[in-house]
Amino acid sequence: MMKEADNCRVNGDMLRNVLNAVIPNAPNLQHICLQTGRKHYLGPFEALGKIVPHEPPYHEEMPRLDFKNFYYVLEDTLLQEVEKKEGLTWSVHRPGIGNLCVYAAICKHEGLPLLFPVTQEAWNGYWDASDMGGCRSFC
Q1: Residue 41 catalytic?
Q2: b vs e for 4-17, b when ≥16 Cβ sit within 10 Å of the residue's Cβ?
Q3: Rounded to whole angstroms, how far apart are CA atoms 4 and 59?
Q4: Which of 41, 56, 102, 125 is the most buried (most CB within 10 A)?
């Protein structure tokens, strides 16, 4: 398994390469959306037991954890590259419940039952939720 420092380098380079190819060659590009996830608040897997993660409910104003996290590198890279094109906006989405909503919508569209394949603890536990008003603005 890769160390988080390697994840930071590889993923940061990958995103920078994509943005360096797309931004100057997409004159109508107006907005870039980056999707990360819950590890922004909990830290990477190798941080488990080494740091105290944030407590839910999670929100965007929470400070970064004091541990390497490639999500942070992706956000920083996005901010650096977006500044190079006037008027280009950005957003970062850290879905948890949103992924379940997409899955539920697909099941409904396909006429399939919605199965929630998790433990009873996960079903009863509190994780996080998305502000649907904010999400709706991108639909």
Answers
A1: no
A2: beebbeebbeebbe
A3: 23
A4: 41
Structure pTM? Answer: 0.72
**Of these residues, 3, 39, 41, 68, which one is catalytic?**
39
Q: Token match 């509190």: residue?
A: 126
Whether 108 is a known active-site residue: answer: no
Question: In the structure encoding, which two tokens stand for residue 29, read together?
Answer: 């590009």
Provide the residue count of the chain.
139
Q: What is the predicted pLDDT for the residue at 133?
A: 55
Give the active site residue among 3, 50, 71, 108: 71
Angstrom distance (rounded) from CA 4 to CA 75: 15
Under a CB-based contact definition with an 8 Å cutoff, are residues 8 and 68 in contact?
A: yes
Which residue stretches of the chain have pLDDT < 50? 138-139
